[in-house]
Amino acid sequence: xxxxxxxxxxxxxxxxxxxxxxxxxxxxxxxxxxxxxxxxxxxxxxxxxxxxxxxxxxxxxxxxxxxxxxxxxxxxxxxxxxxxxxxxxxxxxxxxxxxxxxxxxxxxxxxxxxxxxxxxxxxxxxxxxxxxxxxxxxxxxxxxxxxxxxxxxxxxxxxxxxxxxxxxxxxxxxxxxxxxxxxxxxxxxxxxxxxxxxxxxxxxxxxxxxxxxxxxxxxxxxxxxxxxxxxxxxxxxxxxxxxxxxxxxxxxxxxxxxxxxxxxxxxxxxxxxxxxxxxxxxxxxxxxxxxxxxxxxxxxxxxxxxxxxxxxxxxxxxxxxxxxxxxxxxxxxxxxxxxxxxxxxxxxxxxxxxxxxxxxxxxxxxxxxxxxxxxxxxxxxx
Length: 382
Ligand SMILES: [Zn+2]
Prior knowledge:
Shape: globular
Low-confidence stretches: 193-205, 373-382
Domain FHA: 263-315
Largest sheet: 6 strands, mixed
InterPro entries: FHA_dom (IPR000253), SMAD_FHA_dom_sf (IPR008984)
Number of strands: 21
Protein name: FHA domain-containing protein
Number of domains: 2
Helix content: 10-25%
Structural class: alpha+beta
Organism: Micromonospora chaiyaphumensis
Number of helices: 8
Bound molecules: zinc ion
Keywords: Phosphoprotein
């Protein structure tokens, strides 16, 4: 049982991030883990985060949807969590996958404002509409509540039941145009990598500057939300393009492409940071698609795709699915990704810019809770 729960927590770990290009909603972890009515279980459970992530995935009809979690520091020693869950949250903190704060205040709303993301919360945020006017917009604040097949979203504020995004706020756009450096050694959010926290030996990723979270503003000064220290400006942030993989008509994963950091995509690329498609492919597609099938690069703002496969790829110009329009991309050939273009690795396996690729088939997302023991998944009777 313990082992199974560990596997679910590992799966959930793949769905928490503070990367401004990839996060799709903001949550307060201290709030989410106490929604006991979602499963009728223990007073606090980290698995509820998985249930909420699944609900978000169902709502926006995409797999692999990550959330931006704000974590009150007290949670790292919360006795209502199991020791395993506490260790997992500490690991997320040390890896910079979540934001751990002594005084979260309205950081959740600040992040939602800067990044233009919806907030998943049962709070009503009374009296905060003046500071954050978008709180009144439909879909910007949704409360996950028990539903027949898992949590569903209702509005306590602003109306709507579908998560809505907005553009980054002007301040957010400005902050995210620069990279920032925290003077605190081993800062997991604004460090140069290397770690140094209490669990630094468990830290596995160095923070890429392009994926840095938005600083918090204190009296107009960019500040580390974790350490409260003034951040140094470390120059322009590398440009980023967000691409999405669609398989069988469903968006399976988004990934960020940064200048000077090519990303291989294929059945099972052996490079760190490569996008692994194997889990979503049928036998024929697995046979056709090479381990590393195509490589994406961002150069001077243009997305360049290079075929690295045995069998070649195709380009669907402007997303056209008409066969005469399809352009072959032979092995080793490169091409600039034009507006709306989709790269096709195999029929039904396509990659394009995230804002130009949507799910167009009946969607049945892969649950992050697939490994959950039935006990943890028990739903309350209506
Ligand atoms: Zn810091």
